[in-house]
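Same chain as my last thread, 98 residues:
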Amino acid sequence: MKDTYFNDDWRFKVANREAIVGCILAAINILWWFGFAYGLGSKPPEEYTYVLGFPAWFFWSCIVGYLVMVVLVFIVVKFVLKEVPLNDDVEDEEEESA
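reply #2:
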């Protein structure tokens, strides 16, 4: 009986979707960092270009990557994730009012 409760509860579906969104954000962060760090940083140090005093690979992978991820997380939290009640009282109240 408990297994059907967990399978029928809508909050688990929401939590699963939000976990997938979090994993996608983490994958984007890793790909961004890896692409710029190893893409621009694979040259000898004498051939590096500099942005604001930082090597370009560091600037684009760590500094700009951080800012991009902050904006992406803000957008996801504001528009994708939704608040879910964590207590069972809400479900009991919904059943009583129906």
